[in-house]
Amino acid sequence: MTTTILTQGPTEADLEAEIHGVLRKAFPWLPPSALKHQIRFSFRIGRNTIDIDGAAMAAEGRTDILVYAHDKPLAVFELKRQGHALTPDDELQGLSYAKVMTPPFPLVVLSNGDVTRILAAHSGAIWEPETPSEEEFQKLVTAAGRAATSDLKQAVSTLMASNPMVWRQSVRAASNAQIDEMCGTWDAPSFPFVQDFLFPRKATLATLILLRKGQRFLLVEGPPLIGKSNLLREMVNQTSDVADMAVLFVAADDGRGVIQSVADLLASALSWPVTIEEARHWLMQISRARGPSLVLAVDGIDTDNDVIRREIENLSSAAFGAQLRLVMTVDNAAVKKFMEHPNGRQASAIGRRVDGRIALGLLDDEEFMLAAEAFFDRRMGFQYGAASALELRVPWILRALGGHYAPSQADSSDKVVVLPAQLSLDLIGHSRARFLDDELRRQFREVARGVLQDAADASLTLALKLEAITTFVVRHTTLLEYLDRTEIDRLMAHGFLKPVIHESSEPVLFVALPEFLASEASIVLGEELLKQANANAKEAARWLVAITSCIPLGDIIAAHAFLDAAQGGRGLPLDVVEALVDMPPRSEPIPPGMTAAAHVPEVGMMNMTFEQDGSFTAEINGKREKITLDPSDLPTILGDYHPWLILSHLTGQPMVYGTDAVRLDHELLGKIGSCQYVLRRPDAFLKGSGVLTHHVPGYGEIVCHMAGIVEPITYSLFKMLSSEGPDQEAWIDQALAAESLGLLTRIDIALRATTQLFDPVRRPWAERMLREKIGPALRDTLHAQHGDSRCQ
User: What does the alpha-carbon distance between residue 580 and residue 572 come to, in Å, rounded to a whole number?
Assistant: First the structure.
């Protein structure tokens, strides 16, 4: 039988015995009963407390200990393992500990068991009084107190450079201070983060994995407001208690430069007044030291700022060691310019050094579920069907919804607020309730005019047109027609506009409060809609469709424009509504020769040309490939769906016309609700998603009730039925008489959602309508007209 010794290093009992031996050797003039020691202690740097665990450090061959005599500070011990030489760095660290303590410790003792040195903390000199005594010790205490404050900066500098346990905690404290400054409440949209609200993204894990593999320079890229800043925030959280890495969150969007931002951050959080050169020197020391890596998580860099560009080139160069890592967020519109040399023929120095690029896009299925869980933890739940809404995969829209629906802190009930499965005109109503600054509203209205002008400009480059479909963006030259340069600069300084040189080489501005822009764009369109309607209603309808199909939230903005046009007693432009009704969607095969363009994540622009047999030729980066499809999968397109999407949202608002106060919304609900196609925006961005449907022979596709509310028109039906309930039973009877399969299935889904409400009147009424009217009518209609159906 053999015995294996598992304990390789000294045990805590061994450590205690060694400490007592050194104490007796260093202070023979003090009775052992007067001495006490701590191997776990803390001290403050600025506003932050640093915890030191001497026992944990013992495995590295060194233990830091505080010793007290008669319960008063006596000495800082730097106890090294026997056989390890004492070095000047050991002296500096011990002296630094002595000075940062409150009150300061007068002595520093260094020992490796064979050699013991006692230093006066105020001078660093060997303390060798002729007769060590309490009187000599008191003189030392007085001197240490006088010297401590003047030497504090040097003491902090020493600990920050030489002690990973100190600088790791200090970096995390500085990051948390920066993030806390950027956190606001749900209803404070000008703050980037919501306090105590964060859900995980897969890209964060991918970034941390690459860093642990040793990659030094990573770019996190994606469109504005997609969550890049929150990814860095999540990195700080994920590494808060790891030993191999510390993440310093640096907000670099104010143009000060990365290193200056680091210096200011450390000075603010730690009361460590370092200059830019001292900060650079500290980064260089950490980059070449043994131990954990320091990750600079730099958010919001201006890629056109030459100072910042040179700093990044320097920080990513061989001048800094491998323990300094860089993670930077960049808007995808600026990545190309950041990575390429100005001559356009080769990679820039930064482009050559980037080890990895992490693309951040819309939330996938798992991320949306995690976001939903985070909302539920704050007593907000999503209506069934929300997982199929493309808009709800956009982080800024989730933030906007939370800003309206989040229960107040004063609400102590256990009720859960239900967030809608589809966006509606309520988004604009919420925005107007939150943004009340008249001057800011005026400026954003002018920004909206610029955005709409660019959206209607046929000369816009293809790359910028595609960008404008998903993000509110305006060319700098266009906005100067509406706001002077001072106003634009002020909006940029407050973070409302973000300047970027687009990959199309156009200087553009991204809008940081999209819901606010949507609200003001609705007013601008409402004004123009009245003018256009008075001239030619059909042309007005075509104009409205054309311009709003090219901007984010265009269907919602267009629908709300009707309400804004009707303000002040001017009345709804009914002729334009009628013209939109006369523009129903249609399904048709893709015609041969048709070309299309799409942006493929992590690849770039893909141009497609469709052939006679239904195949298409794809061209990416100059390479062409023919894609052949199965005859049963030949693609079709749903044409002209935008007009009825606009009406789908408009029907969610009670509207009357004529002397008899006829409900226009009821008429539109019946008409649009009868659409024989699934009426929603294409969801090509949701890979492998879509909605569960039934294929009905001789009819087409209808949404399965198990999918929930996945169409805006169904959400409008839900709003009407759930708010008016039994008062609309006569309307339901009229819908039954129409015998429209599409309308019946949508009413069925809307009533099912109503049964989920905690309402003592509408809930049982909806259950009765389903049981007695809608259910039987659906079965009879399917059997009599269309036979069986099957789920798709």
Answer: 13
DSSP letter for 126, please.
B
In sequence order, the 6+-apart residues with CB closer than 8 A to the CB of 792 are 692, 693, 694, 695, 701
Tell me the angle at which helices 741-754 and 664-673 cross, rounded to the nearest 10 degrees: 110
SS3 category, 674: coil
Q: How confident is the model at residue 601, as a pLDDT?
A: 52
Degrees (nearest 5) of the Cα angle 237, 243, 249? Answer: 40
**Backbone angles phi and psi of 520, in degrees to 5:** -75, -35
Which of 153, 181, 121 lies closest to 46, judged by CA?
Answer: 153
For residue 671, the one-letter residue type is K
CB atoms within 10 A of CB 496: 20
Q: How many CB atoms lie within 10 A of CB 617?
A: 14
Residue with tokens 């001559």: 343
Q: Express each pLDDT in 446-479 by its tens digit.
A: 999 999 999 999 888 888 888 888 899 999 999 9
Please tell me whether residue 162 adopts helix, strand or coil conformation.
helix
Residue type, 777: A
Whether the Cβ atoms of residue 259 and residue 291 lie closer than 8 Å to each other: no
User: Is the overall model pTM greater than 0.85, yes or no?
Assistant: no
Q: What is the CA radius of gyration of the chain?
A: 34
The two tokens of residue 281 are 């020197």
Of residues 342, 337, 392, the one with CA closest to residue 364: 392
Alpha-carbon distance of 730 to 726, in angstroms, equals 9
Helix axes 258-270, 164-181, angle to 10 degrees: 100
